[in-house]
Amino acid sequence: MLSSLRIFAVNHKKMSRLHINSMYYSKIRASLKRLKPHVPLGRNYSSLPGLIGNDIKSLHSIINPPVAKIRNIGIMAHIDAGKTTTTERILYYSGYTRSLGDVDDGDTVTDFMAQERERGITIQSAAVTFDWKGYRVNLIDTPGHVDFTLEVERCLRVLDGAVAVFDASAGVEAQTLTVWRQADKHKIPRICFLNKMDKTGASFNYAVESIRQKLKAKPLLLQLPIGEAKTFKGVVDVVSKEKLLWNLNSDDGKDFERKPLLEMSDPKLLKETTEARNALIEQVADLDDEFAELVLGEFSENFDLLPAEKLQTAIHRVTLAQTAVPVLCGSALKNKGVQPLLDAITMYLPSPEERNYDFLQWYKGDLCALAFKVLHDKQRGPLVFMRIYSGMIKPQLAIHNINGNCTERISRLLLPFADQHVEIPSLTAGNIALTVGLKHTATGDTLVSSKSSALAAARRAEREGEKKHRQNSEAERLLLAGVEIPEPVFFCTIEPPSVSKQPDLDHALKCLQREDPSLKVRLDPDSGQTVLCGMGELHIEIIHDRIKREYGLETYLGPLQVAYRETILNSVRATDTLDRTLGDKRHLVTVEVEAKPIEASSGAPVIEYADSVSEDIWKASQEAIENGIHSACLQGPLLGSPIQDVAITLHSLIIHPGTSSTMISACVSRCVQKALKKADKQVLEPLMNLEVTVTRDYLSPVLADLAQRRGNIQEIQTRQDNRVVIGFVPLAEIMGYSTVLRTLTSGSAAFALELSNYQAMSPQDQSTLLSRRSGLT
Prior knowledge:
This is Ribosome-releasing factor 2, mitochondrial. By secondary structure, this protein is of the alpha+beta class. It is 33% helix and 28% strand. A hairpin with a 2-residue loop joins strand 2 (126-132) and strand 3. Helix 5 (149-156) packs parallel to helix 6, helix 8 crosses helix 9 and helix 8 (267-287) packs across helix 10 (308-321).
């Protein structure tokens, strides 16, 4: 062993003096393999100190620049558009990975979960931090699958900008629309990257037109491709009128040359670029008054004289105002166009100080942060990701959680790099931090330095609110908006291998729920079974797999069931009296309620009080009344599913003195249930937006199959050589559809699903469902 180490040390000395060519590099790798049991290598993007130190940057060397040079960005797209591959190339070119990872090989940095590597998809968003040309970039790679939409939502909530990645052969796809709407909701400036320009069927013009038509966005063409599909070899920078050509002999895409376009060598390309640049200048001038004045004043005669810097500054302002989106192109897999994308991220997307956050003025530089994600680490416990909006975070700092009204202490502060973390001494405003030691903090919690700091901020907010005549509660003004958690559409029972393992299963589910707020767990009151509620088949399958791998529990899943809803069709009244004597106390309540259907879609019951009820009485017992109504609407009379689109009016309430609020709540609940049973009832089923991309040859069998599944086809679009079928299908009919579609189309089709709304079932389908549930069929 010692002799091996001596050989290794001598080799290492020689290496530092010689140029490391491929022969020596293979020797080092061979030496490392021999020493594998003794040298902790880790993953290929963590480097051994001093070994190949010149090849790869250390995470400790990440710069800490002023806020103006920080970029918090996310990568978002439809599934399989190339988000993770683009992220992988970004990390390689910025110098933080030694080799190019591949999704198909399962060795990418950000897809580190076993389930992600097996399936080749992103399930959890992963954060990485790196620097590029003096800028610090905090980047989050998000999932593209519809089952994990909440992951995208909670990441976009804390980001300042986003890169929307598109498949150049498909343009805007189903999930692209969803993530674009989420970015609109959070007012996120974004740039578009048309990926897969080397793919057969790739079309730059088609992709740009789909952005214009489907996303209703104004694309600013900052680049033009040189060739498409198999002939794609580089891009033209429209702003500077230069062409970027990648060296064909370079395996990793690091070598490319930037040449100015000349009349002699590229007359046709120069003409196209000049036209595109003039169109770009006119577009930006229409959207930005300051730039319009400059163009009309000094450069109205000749746009060619306009400096690139002036145009870039104007594009930055337009991107921030979200009136247009810069468009770039390339091929991440073939290592083309990623470095210009990085330049565009630093040049056009905003820094934290360029985003307007109203609440910052109330904190006056004190700590204000939002927890947006929680992970569980077996060694460290809960890891909380947070975005720091103001102030500074250090280890051993006590912080106050406004949502939970509790104070906790941060034990360690880490810098995220997918599943590798580096400990750091402090982190300033504008950054994304990873903290250890916060045991009660959950997704969406607002964190401040102390309770007194929160109160001081509340007083400032109150004074500001009075000036603007706003009536908000103290808590509402201080809490940063969290994320809306969608209602689950699938559920199934889950059982441990034995009763003794039930506490372990409960612990695993509690940890997974804290990580993933879209996962709901409830106890079936009739059977006593644990019920998992999730966003789709894949979501529940992944949860089941994680319980097995991470917690060592072989659990059993019941059959997947659809989350139905119930409503009523007519108005009904009901009266109920509860008379109980407990000890020497008599509890007497008489209630009269009316249940009626409402037009507007509402998940929770709308509660009203009739004029005949004394305001003093219902105000004194309001909490008990509303608890009773809400609990009654959790289980409908037909299937035991939640009731929606219902208004409950309280017409009479007589309470005997000394009656407890629990008894009032129980009486109201029983009375509402009585009213719901008397009414004409209707089952509502979840309706899904479906988009199937299929070749022309297989269109007929796909349409015939959808007709059998009670599908409603809205339109059939043409996308290059494919057909895109868009329609609605009940969720109950689409279970296991991926297998059927693969069989029908010999594996050539793809589909995307998204919850649209709940619709009433036909009487025939409803009676069939009820018969099946009661065991009659």
